[in-house]
Every structure is written in C-alpha cells, then in structure tokens.
C-alpha cells in the first residue's frame, strides 16, 4: 500500500513515525507531546525514569493500548490501518515476557506460526530451527524453558519474536535480570540481528552499556515533566542535552581503575 505522502516526496518514509502522542490511564496523563521518527534499520532506545511511561509508549506503538491522542504510522500508514490489513510486521519481547513452559523451544517458536497460519505446516520445523540458529540455539530446540539459563531463555524469546519474519522488533528491557556479561552478549546479538537481517529495533532500556554500545539514537521520557526532554545520539546528549537530568543519567559510568 502506497501513501499520498510517499508519492509526493522522494525522501524515504520513516519506518515508524510517532506523531504528537499522549499517553495515559483514565484521566491521568503519563506522557504528552511524544514525537519522533525511526528510519529503517535503526536501533532506537526509549529511556527515562522508572514509571515515566516507557512500557506504556511501547505498548501504544504496537497497538496494545490506545494513545490518548496522536498517532503511530508504519511506512506512512497508520497503525490502525495496518492492523485492519492483517498481522503487523513486528515482533515483541515484553518486560516480563516468558516462554510457554510446557512447550519445547521449537514448539514455542512454531506456535505463533500456527496461530497466524504462517508458512506451510511441513515447512515450520525447518523455519523454527533457522530462527533458533539465528540466536545461537541451533542444538537446543528439543529443550524445555525450565532447563535453560536466563540468557538462553531471552535468546529463545527473541527467536520467537522473529518467528513470523518480522522486520521490526520491540524489546522492553531485554537484559532485566541478566548478569552484565550475559547482557552484553544479548546486546551483541541484537546488533547482529539488525546488521544481518536489516530489522528495525525499538528498545526500552535503563542500561548505559546497552545505550552506548548499540543504540543509534534515544528519547528520554521525563517522569516529572510528563514529556520527552531529549532526543538524539546518546554520546552527544551526554554533553549537549538541555535537561540536567538527562546529562546526569548519561554521565554515570563505572569508576576508572588507576594504577597504585
Ligand atoms: N494498566 C495500568 N493501569 C493504570 N496505570 C498504569 C497501568 N500500567 C502502568 N500504569 C502507570 O503508568 C505509569 C507508567 O508506567 P510504565 O509501566 O509505562 O512505566 P515505565 O517507564 O515502563 O517504568 P519501569 O521503568 O518501572 O518499567 C506508572 O505510573 C504506572 O503506575
Ligand atoms: Mg517498563
């Protein structure tokens, strides 16, 4: 489907556009005036105080909750219209997202294919094995989630989020509960999925290491002001953000070790 905007303009449409979105529950507004574009293939981070509305924004971007106002567009087409046209092209890893414990990893990845009637039944096992191979779990398809480490479970959940060949991936704090080394490996995996498959990634995180190592750009949602206060490259915002809160957040680093 082509939009009017695409016909009139030769510059590529952003993969995702968030346009003057306000978010809230009942009468209380969590965030207002949220606007940004994400070009195809970018790793875009949503950052902010705890309770600022990061998960709420992510849920609104995938249509799980309605925005109080504003709209979200994918390739110039509104999310509502995309939903009417069939399964939208994105995978989601929720903040507390878990695998189905009574299924093997292969079954976990084939389940969305069955639900969405994706590929032929005969082709699904091979496709599921391919997804597991993408995340380094080629030999673990027969295992149940309970027998895996936390990092392996996260990787399997990533494979499931890509089960339908999605080209946009939404990740809500994927490193939560992982040790720092496993977190860095997960960052490397997300980076390799972007580089290898060209997928666009929207990542909620509070980890500076992830921000600096894989995020191309970030938005900072201020939980006190109830609006975004910074948008740009993490390393640049660390110096140039007008919000002191953002500069402080981005400046917190591990202490330097000096020789005695
Ligand atoms: N289902 C809900 N009903 C009512 N209020 C909610 C609901 N979900 C979240 N909230 C409130 O909305 C605000 C934003 O919540 P959200 O989970 O989006 O924050 P967050 O930035 O993701 O926080 P965290 O960093 O702790 O994950 C919070 O004040 C929260 O209490
Ligand atoms: Mg959250």
Give an overview in words:
The structure is a single chain. The chain has 260 residues and is α/β, with parallel strands linked by helices. The protein folds into 2 domains: 4-89 and 169-251, 3-Layer(aba) Sandwich (Rossmann fold), CATH 3.40.50.300; 99-166, no CATH class. It is 36% helix and 23% strand. The chain has 10 helices and 10 strands. Strands 6-7-8-3-9-10 form a 6-stranded mixed sheet, sandwiched between helices. The chain has a 4-stranded antiparallel sheet with strand order 2-1-4-5. Helix 4 crosses helix 5 and helix 9 (234-240) crosses helix 10. Bound molecules: adenosine-5'-triphosphate (ATP) and magnesium ion. Residues 54-55, 95, 172 line the site of magnesium ion (MG).
Short description:
The protein folds into 2 domains: 4-89 and 169-251, P-loop containing nucleotide triphosphate hydrolases (Rossmann fold); 99-166, no CATH class. Helices cover 36% and strands 23% of the residues.
Cα(first) to Cα(last) distance is 65 Å
Please tally the helical runs, counting DSSP H or I stretches of 4 or more residues.
10
Average the pLDDT over all residues and give the rounded result. Answer: 90
Please estimate the helix content. Answer: 25-40%
Bound molecules: adenosine-5'-triphosphate, magnesium ion
In CATH terms, the superfamily of the largest domain is P-loop containing nucleotide triphosphate hydrolases
Radius of gyration: 19 Å
CATH class of the largest domain: Alpha Beta
**Total domain count:** 2
Any idea what the CATH architecture of the largest domain is?
3-Layer(aba) Sandwich
Strand order of the largest sheet: 6-7-8-3-9-10
Indicate the proportion of strand residues.
Answer: 15-25%
Structure class:
alpha/beta
CATH topology group of the largest domain: Rossmann fold
């Amino acid at each position: 489907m082509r939009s009017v905007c695409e016909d009139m303009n030769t510059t590529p449409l952003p993969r995702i556009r968030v346009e003057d979105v306000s978010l809230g529950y009942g009468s209380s507004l969590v965030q207002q005036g949220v606007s940004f574009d994400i070009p195809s293939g970018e790793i875009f981070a949503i950052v902010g105080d705890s309770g600022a509305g990061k998960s709420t924004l992510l849920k609104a971007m995938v249509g799980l909750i309605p925005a109080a106002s504003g709209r979200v567009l994918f390739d110039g087409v509104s999310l509502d219209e995309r939903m009417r046209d069939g399964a939208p092209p994105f995978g989601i890893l929720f903040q507390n997202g878990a695998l189905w414990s009574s299924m093997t990893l292969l079954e976990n990845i084939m389940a969305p294919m069955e639900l969405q009637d994706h590929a032929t039944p005969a082709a699904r096992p091979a496709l599921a094995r391919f997804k597991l191979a993408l995340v380094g779990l080629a030999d673990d398809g027969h295992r149940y989630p309970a027998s895996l480490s936390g990092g392996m479970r996260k990787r399997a959940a990533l494979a499931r989020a890509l089960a339908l060949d999605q080209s946009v991936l939404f990740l809500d704090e994927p490193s939560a509960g992982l040790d720092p080394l496993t977190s860095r490996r997960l960052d490397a995996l997300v980076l390799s999925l972007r580089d290898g498959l060209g997928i666009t990634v929207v990542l909620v995180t509070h980890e500076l290491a992830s921000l600096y190592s894989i995020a191309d750009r970030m938005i900072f949602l201020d939980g006190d002001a109830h609006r975004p206060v910074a948008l740009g490259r993490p390393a640049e915002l660390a110096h140039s953000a007008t919000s002191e809160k953002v500069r402080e957040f981005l400046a917190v680093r591990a202490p330097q070790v000096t020789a005695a």
